[in-house]
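Repro case for the chain-ordering regression, as requested:
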Amino acid sequence: MAITMEGVELGVSISELAATKIKYFAAKDGITDNVGVRVAVKGGGCSGLTYDLQITDKEVESDKIVEQHGVKVMVDKKSYIYLVGTELEFSDGLNGKGFVFQNPNAKKSCGCGTSFSV
Amino acid sequence: MALQRSALPTVYSTSEEEYQAVTTKAALHDASYMGRLKAIGDDGLDLLNRLSTNKVIDLTAGQGAPTILTTDRGRILDLIGVVNVDEYILLITSPGAQQQVIDFLDKYTIMEDLTVEDITAESTMFSVLGPASQEAVESASGTKLGDLPTYHSVTSEIGGREVRIVHRPFGDLPSYDILMDTVAKTGVWEYLAASGITPVGEEAFEAARLNYSVPDYGREISEAYNPLEAGLIGSIDFAKGCYIGQEVIARLDTYQKIQKHLVRLEFSADATVSEGDVLTYAGQEVGKVTSVTNIPTGLGLVGMAYIRKASASPGNVLELAAPSSGQAEITALPQLFGPGQE
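-- result from build under test --
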């Protein structure tokens, strides 16, 4: 099911908590303007594909970019097909896993959650 | 140059003389039938690190390592040598596996900067094998090799032709690969042969392969086996993190769950045996012969087999099932790259 905002289909949506955490980590890196998170998929990893997440203020022209909760979510063009409908969440607390991708396309994932297959 | 191993001369002089050269001196083998790929792009080592068993991400120019491309079930797609030659990453594959490796890498190239070309036909590779191989290659090239770790490489010249020397051992037998553009092949071969390195044909090479228990693609290395069964634990890095098949391999190692193991066999003098023959132990079928050949110099028949783990102990004497006959003693559980990290 496509996640849309104001009629625009989003490749990756992020939760408000995830956005807050992104801004926090960005500030630690000295990024306070044009805060963004670039998400992509790399080949390999124990389930076949691996999520890649980078906090950045640099936009890549070919990325799909949508602003949510004050953060620019940039989806790498080649990775888009694997990430449509994904939500990036943040799992907090003592037993929290940190940033977590909830990907409806993933058939299985590895024990640590960084790798998945479609 | 032989692009097929089957096209190699059976012998150049006599099998006995050539086998003696491999095992006691230095021998020259045309290994051009091995695959050679050129991986270009900034992300090659990063991707290979996520697709194979060994840690290759940190290899700097001149460095290399063996690694196994694995399926999601932890089975062997191919055992490859990864050599960083600075301008690109050289991948030495099993013979005939080039396209399979290219397709595998291509399948998992998504956002990575990587293209892979097959350069097998436009390049040549000779192996110099034997206890005196280091000395022989040093003498021919003028390059000292004593400190060159395995799978690392240096550029040099032999007979006035540019070559790359890769330290790629042949099991426990010292060995160096000499790579060059195909235009240089005749000159380099003649120079090495004239310097006293004995050309070795297919018959003596196969005998050496089995004596030193070097697994062969299609017989001991295939998707039918996982790296632990094949004795390749020395090319697995258990600490490096995620790669395809990692969870399966880690679990098999942790819980000691492998079902069978590759063994070295010495057959009785009266044995009649072929590849595929069934082996039994205490009346039960425990495996099949994967390779067998006669060792020149009268040492008899030597081979390899995958044997059920419970029966795979050195010293066990297996029986060949009818219609073949004779016995086979397990002399070792070979580990091509050693016992691995403790």
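Ordering looks correct now. The longest helix of chain A spans residues 16-28.
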